[in-house]
Amino acid sequence: MSEPTSRAAAGARIVLKDVTKVYPGQPGPAVDSFSMDIAPGELIMFVGPSGCGKTTTMKMINRIIEPTSGSITIDGQDILTLNPNELRRRIGYVIQQIGLFPHMTIAENIAVVPKLLGWDRNKIRNRVEELLAVVELDPKTFASRYPRQLSGGQQQRVGVARALAADPPVMLMDEPFGATDPITREKLQSEFLRLQEKLSKTIVFVTHDFDEAVRLGDRIAVLSDHSSIEQFDTPANILANPANDYVSQFVGHGAALKRLGLIPVHQASLGPNVAVRGAIEVSVNDSLRDALDALVLSGGTPVAVLNDQGRVVGSIDIEKISAVLGAEILPPALAGGVRP
Ligand SMILES: Nc1ncnc2c1ncn2[C@@H]1O[C@H](COP(=O)(O)OP(=O)(O)OP(=O)(O)O)[C@@H](O)[C@H]1O
After folding, report:
1. Claim to verify: residue 80 and residue 112 sit in the same structural domain
2. Which of 223, 252, 281 is at the close of a domain?
3. What is the CATH number of the domain that holds 161?
4. Are the C-beta atoms of residues 128 and 111 closer than 8 Å to each other?
5. Ligand 1 atom at shortest distance from the alpha carbon of 55
6. pLDDT for 179-188, tens place per residue?
7. By CB count within 10 A, which of 70, 179, 315, 333 is most buried?
């Protein structure tokens, strides 16, 4: 198991120790002795098949489900000693079904927790406007609309804004983008990543989708039945070294390509400058997967790499990409096949 990833953070540390849940009348535990240490500001993905216990594990953190045994602390405080309502106000919660109140406007939906906390009207209004802007919905257009007057993706953004309203240190997200189409989903994921860069919440995020876990997670917990942790590590480490066959199955095909998607071009040692021809070029901040795409389009000819100012700072070819991953990833025949 890897060390928690470091990120200067506003979030809280969450420690689960031997947490078990046995539902009444069930022969075995849904979650069996689950332990995990989550650092402040980490974005942790729970990924696993339907029924393995992801949601049950997550919902014990805000006590929507009460643990049968074990302990959960947030910044050292045992959650069982806190009033559940107070606990839930300190934890943002976003679910796939969104759960906006249909008879309330968007502004009123976002204001639910601040109102419970007794904020004054001005403070609430300012916060609502700020949050709508954060999730890229124009307050003038959207504040007074009702949920049914928004698209699914827009409603999901409101769900995120509502969970952020009281600036909780912890967020729990249960398949939040699961019901959206692939394009909206990718957009919401990118927005969410940008947001997390700024906010550094501690986030537990449940998904079925391993690619989503790779894209978003600081660390991924691959879970099997009873919430058993098969591997808990960074996306790059899981892709490079799946712990067992179960994890390999989850990673699926194309592990090398997925890894390339995580590594920026500037981590490769670049070749000599080449002239920019047409649109086939990449930025130092693009991923090596983008660079590979560009190389396919260029027919294997080295592709120019541009810096933030648009100046050519070098070139990239298949061998430079392969060198970053390690020689074993691309078989020599393939690497040789596209050599210019
Ligand atoms: N209220 C309940 N009473 C009895 N059994 C339950 C209850 N809720 C969940 N379970 C069972 O506990 C196990 C774990 O369920 P859980 O919802 O945590 O899984 P999951 O991994 O989140 O699944 P999914 O991805 O389908 O949401 C399942 O076998 C499920 O049938």
Report:
1. yes
2. 252
3. 3.40.50.300
4. yes
5. 22
6. 677 777 888 7
7. 315
Which of 52, 61, 96 has most ligand 1 atoms within 8 Å of CB, for mutation?
Answer: 52
Length of the chain: 340
CA–centroid distance, residue 71 to ligand 1 (Å): 20
Instruction: Tell me the per-residue pLDDT of 151-174, one tens digit each, with 9 for 90 and over.
Output: 888 888 898 888 888 888 899 998
pLDDT of residue 340: 30
Same-domain pairing of 231 and 287 = no
Domain that holds residue 309: 260-337
The set of long-range contacts for 232-236, using a CB threshold of 8 Å and a minimum separation of 24, is: 232/1, 232/2, 232/36, 233/1, 233/2, 234/2, 234/5, 235/262, 236/262, 236/263
pLDDT at residue 219, rounded to an integer: 95
Nearest alpha carbon, ligand 1 atom 24: 50
Residue whose CA lies nearest to ligand 1 atom number 7? 23
Are residue 120 and residue 228 in the same domain, yes or no? yes
CATH number at residue 314: 3.90.1280.20
Q: Express each pLDDT in 281-337 by its tens digit.
A: 999 999 999 999 999 888 888 999 999 998 889 999 988 898 887 744 444 444 443
Tell me what ipTM this predicted complex has. 0.96
The answer on 267 and 135 residing in a single domain is no
Q: Is the CB of 66 under 6 A from ligand 1?
A: no
101 found inside a domain: yes
Does the pLDDT value for residue 3 go beyond 90? no
Exposed (0-12), middle (13-18) or buried (19+): which is 25, by Cβ within 10 Å? exposed
Number of domains the chain is built from? 2
- The overall average pLDDT reported for the chain is 85
Residue 31 Cα to ligand 1 midpoint, Å, equals 9
**Could you tell me if the CB of 85 is within 6 A of ligand 1?**
no
Residue 293, in any domain of the structure: yes
Q: What pLDDT is stored for residue 276 in this prediction?
A: 66
- Structure confidence by residue, pLDDT tens digits, 22-53: 999 888 999 999 999 999 999 999 999 889 99
Mutate to test the pocket of ligand 1, among 34, 55, 68 (most ligand atoms within 8 A of CB): 55
Within a domain: 94: yes
Q: What are phi and psi of 222, to 5 degrees?
A: -90, 120
Give, as one character, the DSSP assignment of residue 145.
Answer: S
Residue 197 reports pLDDT greater than 50: yes
